[in-house]
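Progress note, project year one: complex with iron/sulfur cluster.
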Amino acid sequence: MTPALARSEVLQWLREENETRLDELWRLADDVRRRHVGDEVHLRGLIELSNHCERRCAYCGLRSENRSLQRYRLTREEVLDSVSQAVALGYGSVVLQAGEDSGIAAEWLADLLRRVKGETPLAVTLSLGERADEELVLWRDAGADRYLLRFETCDEALYEQIHPARPDRPGGRKAMLKRLKALGYETGSGVMIGIPGQTYADLADSLEAFRELDLDMIGVGPYLPHPNTPLGRQVESLQAPPGEQAPNTELMGYKLVALTRIVCPDTNIPSATALATLNQRDGRQLGLARGVNVVMPNLTPPKYRQLHEIYPAKACNFETPGAFDSHLRQSLAAMGRRVGTGRGDSPKRRAALAD
Ligand code: SAH
Ligand code: SF4
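Model obtained:
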């Protein structure tokens, strides 16, 4: 049985600072992780397809108005090279991530998906922002398996301020997640932690929303200010009431990971790059010990990696993918964990089949 958490307990944990008491939360999350998803850690190769973006999210360095960023878009051959590396390293899936970029033409991507799905055993996850419904249908038909789209915060007023809407795509991200589910995608979402103006209560609401949306994957990570964004330059109007602002710290990152594992035990939870950025030495291991069961090694061609600057100093392994892979396998073995085999499909679906 998974211990259910009342909202008041969630709020208490979110504010908890005592290390000894927090050890109890880490133990609880690790225990739920072990019983529900086991010791396997699934590896997904992250391929950052493009850093072009047509949106103006106030928090993100890829926003269209950041003119100081050199833009890139991978060629088909570059993507296929990265896909081959994922296969060679024995990964079960790849994640194709990008800004909201209509330069990634729907048919171009559909062709690529058919090729990857026809020639490899990989599961393919897309993370391309709020694309049109007919594109989502086309890509699903071409073999895409999963889609990641964070809803970022449950606070609608805050969301409107930091995420200017696209008039041609009404309905917002939560509606799109439901649509993705109906199309048969495994769906993933998540939030940033400690956005200016975001309260502890909003994080408790987000955990509740994770459960209600019945997600297959949940990614959470601290908000990291980018100096070339309006939010990074601080928007004075975004202020939580005194004592209510959720901090954007590494510790809050672990708390959210642990609480997510407890609230949604049968979910794939990746190690957030933002945590590895805040603590380059131990961030990944600490996440793995507190609820995480997925790691996404970066397979973007090295010359583009620094340009995918969602926030500054984003952790990206500059070693070769092979060197990073053996380092990762060693550190997993030292933690008593093993690399997952197969595609690492949603544990939720496996749990449902076993019922
Ligand atoms: N364009 C796609 C995917 C790339 S952005 C999309 O928006 O879904 C992926 C995620 O990066 C976003 O969902 C957001 O949660 C995170 N992100 C963006 N800016 C960030 C920042 N300054 N700090 C931390 N995370 C950030
Ligand atoms: Fe574009 Fe995604 Fe960044 Fe928003 S969060 S600006 S959609 S890359």
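Residues 19-37 form the longest helix (19 residues).
The beta strands are 40-50, 93-98, 123-127, 146-148, 186-193, 217-222, 294-295, 338-339.
No further modelling is planned for this target in the current period.
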